[in-house]
Every structure is written in structure tokens, then in C-alpha cells.
Amino acid sequence: MKHWDQFLAPYKQAVSELKIKLKGMRGQFELDSSHSPIEFVTGRVKPIASILDKANQKGIPLESLEEEMQDIAGMRIMCQFVDDIHTVVNLLRNRNDLEIVEERDYISHKKTSGYRSYHVVIQYPVQTIHGEKKILAEIQIRTLAMNFWATIEHSLNYKYKGAFPSDIRMRLQRASEAAFRLDEEMSLIRGEIQEAQAFFTRKKELKQEE
Ligand code: 0O2
């Protein structure tokens, strides 16, 4: 157990630091009174049981976890609109505290399950008492609609262990298409939505100043 604690410590540190940094980006947009492409951020270290399961499924030897398992540290950035995802990816590309090593675009190329999301794999330097340690982390960037679908599908996947009954599989496909259309519809009235959100933010600020 001590071995796992030691192994996971830099991943835990990375997730804590990245949460602060990515949430900080949202705060900076708020200070600028401009639309934040980031709605909210979550992060987690993969549980040991899931690391072992995935290593087993993918034939990754435990000695190679650091190099071959890219999502032991996982971040999720949720956006309101599909265009925001590209803004966030560009913001990440311009940072000099992390290095992007791979991008996987499951938005232009959705998975057969119906899954859509943009994945960015980064190398992130963690400062430890033994010096710098670079670890891999995966940042998943998605809209609220994509996140809703993925969260539900993930729970059902857990229940059925991937072997969905055909009616559930069909409904998940239809739900994925509905989420896609929802994102499209919201993009079309993006201007209206942002105007209303700016109005309510300003109203809240004025109330706080009173
Ligand atoms: P968790 O932490 O429980 O979410 P693979 O596992 O082969 O599909 P790989 O190479 O690990 O893929 O990379 P990929 O596909 O970029 O990232 C895997 C992660 O993306 C998964 O992590 C999920 O978080 C998410 N994901 C990928 N495909 C799907 C999908 O069809 N449905 C849902 N709900 N999520 C998906 P894990 O390992 O499943 O773990």
C-alpha cells in the first residue's frame, strides 16, 4: 500500500495544482467581464482498482504504467458551447507550464459508442522534494451536453460491463444524437444566451455593491 501511495503522490499533486490553475482561468475571464469558455472543472486520480483493471485489459505491465497509462491523473473541463472547446484547447496550447503530447478529437470523429469529447494528453512537471518529476495527465474537454451523455453512459457501462442490451444501446445512440443536436441548437442562439448571462452577472454585481 505504501508503494501505491508513493506512486500516486505526484499524480495527486498534479490534479490539485491543475484544478487550481484551470479554475483560475475561469476566474480571469470573470474579472475581464468576458464570456468564460470554461463552465466548470473537475479532476480525479484514477482509483487503484481501475488502474489495475485497465492495465489488465490493455496488457500494460505494471512497471510501464507511468509511460503507458495516460489518464492516471484526469481532468475534465466542461464548456457551454462546442466553439468554447476549441478556445480552451488553444489556451492550453499557449501555456508554458505544461506540454501537450497528444490530442484526440472525438468530436469530429465520435466513438462508435456515441462518445464525444476532445482529449488532450499533457506532460506536467511536478516539483517534489526529490526534484522535478514529469507525469502524464489527460484533460477531457466537452460541452455540458456531451458530459451528461458520457456520465450516464459510463454508469450504464458499469452496470452492464460493456455488454448493453440492444434496446439500451439503441437509446444511447439516439441520446448521443440528441445531445449533438442540443449543442448545435445552443450554438445557433449563442449570442442571445451570452447577452442574457452578461445581464444577470452585471445585475448580481450591482446587488453586491449595494
Ligand atoms: P474512467 O476514468 O472511468 O473514465 P480506451 O480506454 O481504449 O477507449 P484510451 O487509449 O485510454 O482509450 O484513451 P481515450 O479513449 O482517449 O480515453 C479513455 C477515457 O475517455 C475513458 O477513461 C473515459 O473517461 C473516456 N471515454 C472514452 N470512451 C468512452 C465512451 O465510450 N463512453 C464514456 N462514457 N467515456 C469514454 P476510462 O479508462 O474508461 O476511465
TrEMBL record:
RelA/SpoT domain ranges (all copies): 43-164
EC identifiers of the protein: 2.7.6.5
SUPFAM superfamilies hit by this protein: Nucleotidyltransferase
Name assigned to this protein: GTP diphosphokinase
Superkingdom of the organism of origin: Bacteria
Single biological process term from Gene Ontology: guanosine tetraphosphate biosynthetic process
Keyword set includes RNA-binding: no
Keywords in alphabetical order: ATP-binding, GTP-binding, Kinase, Nucleotide-binding, Transferase
Record-linked SMART domains: RelA_SpoT
Key word RNA-binding present: no
Residues in coiled coil: none
Subunit structure, interactors included: Homotetramer.
Pathway assigned in UniProt: Purine metabolism; ppGpp biosynthesis; ppGpp from GTP: step 1/2
Record GO terms (molecular function): ATP binding; GTP binding; GTP diphosphokinase activity; kinase activity
Family, per entry: Belongs to the RelA/SpoT family.
A UniProt-annotated Pfam family: RelA_SpoT
